[in-house]
Amino acid sequence: MSIYSINNDMINSDEELLVAPNSTENESVADTKNCCKTRHVLALMGFLGIANVYAMRVNLSVAIVTMVNNSAIPQVNPTANESNVCLAPILNSTAPQPDGEFAWDEKTQGLILGCFFYGYVLTQVPGGRLAELFGGKLVFGLGILITGIFTALSPLAAKLDTWLFVALRVIEGLGEGVTFPAMHSMLAVWVPPLDRAKFASYVYAGSNFGTIISMPLSGYLCSLDFLGGWPLSFYLFGGLSVLWFVVWIFVVYDTPESNPYITTEEKVYIQTMTGQYDHTPRRNIPWKSLATSLPLWAILVTNCGQSWAFYTQLIELPTYMKNILHFDIEQNSLLTSLPYLSSWWCGILFSLLASWLLHHNYISLLNSHKLFNTIGKYLYDD
């Protein structure tokens, strides 16, 4: 369960006139009166980009249900023990469910589903550094483009060789691994501190939105006979990511200074509120300070636990729903998407609650972060 915490100062952050940090009492800066600001374009494109990232990440979890020929597995692997498979009658399906074309046992399926994260974890830290050196726009965009291209090639790779398919999934993980660090970098440049958490919550809500859209749609596409059904989800989300990249390149810029379409008022507002952000990459990274930071380790351990539960459910639940509970592919994909729908809405609702508590000074910002993250973790674990 994701909970987005919004600073109480952000409640009034969209007002026309705001006092800049580090300014005197009489110094103020006006934001543009345009309803659609250039940083809003960044937020929208970032939201759609993150949605694409998760759509490509989770579609295999649904597609593999129809890709695998379960009846052929004992013939390929005579040691496979069917006693662990539920033999209950199929009560939730209205039609016979055909088997797929790949005789992958559970071990192979687990490797295929999990190998994405081998690449994903490797580019998390380098992704942030690459964004500093080459700009978040290029790193974020190329990460999604590379993932989109290899997602579209996945059906061909799966049919040619299992290990080739695994290699493509690792490359997709490498591509997606840079996206979140790169977006962090762009938000730091484009969004004033008072708006930053709010913008981040909107942009990263694309993760739940992409999952909600991808799972049912992938299930529907897998049920079709056209082009074999299951490859369609790879073609669709891979193609959408390529189209997204084309738009991203033309409408998003690394900095307010490099955007030719931004109004002078908005540019000055961002520059003033962000304190003239220094775009020069740091030569020396304080590795020792990072390694000895207790708050950093607390966040790291917490997120490791959350990610363990989140991704285990994300990649394994569709297979469990078919093999154990015997839901057909359309019912399966719809039901497995429901937790992410509730996560999306709960994130928004708890953000509003956090804002209300902060606005009325019922809780401090630090305690707000601790409280709502703790609630989210316990609700998810339960």
TrEMBL record:
The keyword Transmembrane applies. It is found in: Membrane. One of its GO terms (molecular function) is transmembrane transporter activity. Keywords: Membrane, Transmembrane, Transmembrane helix. InterPro entries: MFS, MFS_dom, MFS_Na/Anion_cotransporter, MFS_trans_sf. The keyword Transmembrane helix applies. Pfam families: MFS_1 (PF07690). GO terms for cellular component: membrane. Its main location: membrane. The chain crosses the membrane at residues 138-157, 163-190, 202-221, 233-253, 290-311, 340-358. It is a multi-pass membrane protein. One of its GO terms (biological process) is monoatomic anion transport. Coiled coil: none annotated. It comes from the Eukaryota. Residues 38-382 form the Major facilitator superfamily (MFS) profile domain. PANTHER family: FI19708P1-RELATED, SOLUTE CARRIER FAMILY 17. This is Major facilitator superfamily (MFS) profile domain-containing protein.
